[in-house]
Amino acid sequence: MKIGKVIVMVVAVVVLTVLGYGLASWFLGKPAQNAEGATQLEQTLAQLSSETATTDGEYAVGDRLAGQPAKKATEFDPAFPELQWDNLMPADWDPMAAFRGMNIAELQDNDPKAQEALEKMRKAWNDAPVNMSYTGKKVRIPGFAIPIEQSEKGVDELLLVPYFGACIHTPPPPANQIIHVKLSEPQPAVGAMQAYWVWGELTASKFSSELGDAAYLLTATGIQPYDE
């Protein structure tokens, strides 16, 4: 699945970042402490997952949501069919293209090639194409929320991302894996990285923020906690 590749590539971005700033030895630890046979990306993901999780341990970095929560089946309006995150990426688009021909294991601390690769990848991901087949459609999708606009009444706008930690604990995924959500009514208690179902009309619309660039806009008519 493409989103699995995206998560691995986000971890690669973390590696490139620490290499570019000369922090790889500090971040990854001494080779003798690494698991036998583990690749550099696997070591980094393991470190991220072990150090960054929710306070109740429900999710770890990189965790995704299943299509239907295990706790309780919820009846949704059939006018808003579930949309898979993978389908937001065009079938012919390769999220790994910016990394082709690069061997991250050969890069060293303070290596300018790491920073060059990081900048190349970020530009490619910020300009990630959308799947026009879903624009203008009513959809329902589960994801993790990142509030970005809030009034006295609550959260008005948020970013929705496909896996735990995106944009906060790890660099942002491609723009076609971030949805800018505008809520029809302010929600009083939307926490960062809380899991939600959101539904409404999806359109292609570029949105930039300090946390990441979104390629889609969801004008939401409903939102509810994922496991209610």
Question: What is the gist of this entry?
Answer:
The protein has helices spanning 2-20, 24-28, 40-51, 112-126, and strands spanning 137-151, 154-161, 179-187, 195-208, 213-225. It is an alpha+beta fold and 228 residues long.
* N-end to C-end Cα span: 27 Å
Strand runs, count = 5
* Overall SS class: alpha+beta
Largest sheet properties: 5 strands, mixed, barrel
**The number of domains:** 2
How much helix, percentage-wise, in residues?
A: 10-25%
The assigned CATH architecture of the largest domain is Beta Barrel
**Share in β-strands:** 25-35%
Task: Output the radius of gyration.
Answer: 18 Å
Strand order of the largest sheet: 1-2-3-5-4
* CATH fold name of the largest domain: OB fold (Dihydrolipoamide Acetyltransferase, E2P)
Q: What value does the average pLDDT take?
A: 78
